[in-house]
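Why does this matter for the project? Reviewers at the last site visit asked to see concrete outputs rather than summary tables. In response, this paragraph embeds two records directly. Each consists of the residue sequence and, immediately after it, the corresponding structure tokens. Nothing has been edited or filtered.
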Amino acid sequence: MTVPATDWTETISADEPERHERFADSIVTLQTRISAKRGPGRAFHRKPVAALAGRLIVPEVLPEYARHGLFAEPGEYEVLVRMSNGAVIPQPDALPDIRGFALSVRGLDAPGALGQRTDRQDFLLINMPAFGFEDSQDFADIVGPAARGQVALLRFLIEKYGLVKGPLEMAQLVAAQARPFSGFATADFHSCAPVAWGPYAAHMHVKPRGAGRNLLAWRDWGADIQQRLAKGALRWDLQAQFYTDPERTPIEDGRKIWKAPKLTVGNLVLDSLADAEVVEADRFDPWSAVAEHRPLGEIMRARKAAYFPSYRNRT
């Protein structure tokens, strides 16, 4: 790999604080409405699949540009992972959904992305290589109608885009959720939004190692993980995909799949079940991060506004 570029920039509009406040309010309102019917829970990724514990191993040999933040020195860190289904209303595992892989590295003591010191670094990933939304406004417009069902969503899209483009947008959303998913032990997961890497920027990915497919895993994703774990540790490569230029690796556009090489920067080994109640009570926030890996881009900035109010709104 050639050395990645450092000329990335963030583009922050003057009205972002107001837009992000409205975004946070819309998420909390949706969460409150669903919690009134279903009981307290997260706004998204409400249904837990598995809670696992293990370690992240940072190798001794990494390129100089990759040696920043969590990856500056070789070593091992304790980790917790929450695997989840993404729907705002829990549904059977067999139905199409966005799957979540929340990785939290623990035991740190470093300057944090929000200014104070932090003892953790969270990476939130999904089984899609891109969000499918340019920014948080696009997402906020759709999430309310989507929570009311496909008919409501289609009506909204036709009102927004017209009789021709509306159904096309609907088809793209349905196709994205219905993309093949073989299970949490065998699928790739992606951050879909960048984080800083010292002077560089990168997307994060996890790629499974050595796990064979279980054709019946769709019946119960959590049972599949537990059965595999009973036979031995589960392993993934943690990969970074570095910014190269605004066209192939845009910082602000959540619709674009980044086109750049991936570098393995760590090995993730999960070898035991974690305390499910402790993991469910946890926050898992991309802004729970060291300063050298602070989240970047409009979608990440919107998350900063929305995640903490949503966390407080769970109970």
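We now turn to the second protein, recorded in exactly the same manner.
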Amino acid sequence: MNLIKTMSHSLLLSLLMATAACAVEPIIKPIIKPMNTPKTDAHTLWQQIEAEVGVAACDGPQQCHSIAVGAKACGGPDSYLAWSSKSSDGNKLRGLVEQHAAARRAENLASNMMSDCRLVTDPGASCQAGRCSLNHNPGGNPGGHLAK
């Protein structure tokens, strides 16, 4: 019985020493939060693009344009968007689209995204019922909204 008691004490002492040795590392590590910096991600930029394009109102075909948007992982745009020079600032829109494409490329790189590498051709745009819309592109991507 004495032997069992001695072994139990010895085992308990060993466990306590092992636990104490492990207790050097803090059990709860502090959470380091990044500084509050404005985040301009692809989703936010897309919302700004949509706001700039608006309803793409037009009086004639000369006011309608198409612009490449997004970025596929293997290169090139995701799709095209119709916009109107009557109601949108072309320089501002091009700047937003470039920022959006850069944000999408960064997202693709960070997530190891893959894409189909299919070439998306510019369908052009026309004025239909007072709004600019993409032309039909047989056999290709009809363009349109880019979700992200």
